[in-house]
Amino acid sequence: QVQLVESGGGLVQAGGSLRVSCVASGRTFSSYAMGWFRQTPEKEREFVADISWSGATTHYADSVKGRFTISRDNAKNTGYLQMNSLKPEDTAVYYCAVPGPTGWNVLRYRGQGTQVTVSS
Question: pLDDT tens for residues 11-34?
Answer without folding.
Answer: 999 999 999 999 999 778 889 999
